[in-house]
């Protein structure tokens, strides 16, 4: 059963009625409730469409964080064949917040990197809610270096509230690891395509998203800081997260208009959590199309295209 967000209450009530009618119809085959069910389904779809046509940035934040939204592991299983996970940073240890490995995308060998938040309490604790420590970013660097050595495109899927800010992470060089990972993205001589599938928070996101092409799902968010943390810093009141979410321009639509991202991947009506297979196909099509742009280009041309893109971005926003 779908978990409903606060603004989806009108849909929740109608779909609850639909489930009740279906249960009654199954229990008593002599009663024909098909017309009533169809009428309520039409009404529910209309309300859902209306709600999702005017989502606020804070509403989109809630959709991007929906617990049933597909995560990195779901995309990896749907898009990558013969996936071989690679673990460890060769310095300290393994970080379960970042998955990385090699596989085949549409018959082509690729490297894939991304954050995994976890699906339930146990897995969320294991993956630290998708908030990576330094060893996670150093693992990402290791995989990117391997991809470059074997001339493999890099695909990254971003879904994190930000890098882990704990004492141990800071002691092991969190800021330096993020900077090195970002630098590696920018200097790669193979194509890199990134998709923000949920939250793209702060340096924890950009560390594996400084790519030739950066796309966002329709209801994903991408920001320099989480709305709650930004409100705490500016107003010492995390309850004002709704206000700062609007001010920060964190939605895919705002960021495309500013030239921060290269495109928006449509989601099913009601968000990616209501149609996993649909969004997997949309993401696959976009990644496949993006990789075609770099066929026949040399490594130095691919790197220059990426660097020029980010330099132009800074000049245009200044």
Give a brief description:
It contains 14 helices and eight strands.
Structure description:
This protein is an alpha/beta fold and 318 residues long. It has two domains: 49 residues; 257 residues, 2-enoyl-CoA Hydratase, Chain A, domain 1, CATH 3.90.226. It is built from 14 helices and eight strands. Strands 1, 2, 3, 4, 5, 6, 7 and 8 form an eight-stranded mixed sheet that branches. Helix 1 packs antiparallel against helix 2, helix 6 runs parallel beside helix 8 and helix 10 packs across helix 11. The chain is globular and about 70 Å long. It starts with 8 loop residues before the first helix and ends with a helix. The mean pLDDT is 90.
If you consult CATH, what is the topology of the largest domain? 2-enoyl-CoA Hydratase, Chain A, domain 1
Order of helices and strands: HHHHEEEHHEHHEHEEHHHEHH
| CATH architecture classification of the largest domain | Alpha-Beta Complex
Note the beta-strand portion. 15-25%
The share of residues in helices is 40-55%
Radius of gyration (Å): 21 Å
Structural class: alpha/beta
Number of helices: 14
Note the overall shape: globular
What would you give as the CATH superfamily of the largest domain? Answer: 2-enoyl-CoA Hydratase, Chain A, domain 1
Termini distance? 47 Å
Supply the number of structural domains. 2
Mean pLDDT: 90
Biggest sheet features = 8 strands, mixed
What's the total count of β strands? 8
Low-confidence segments, ≥5 residues, pLDDT <50?
A: none
The level 1 CATH classification of the largest domain is Alpha Beta
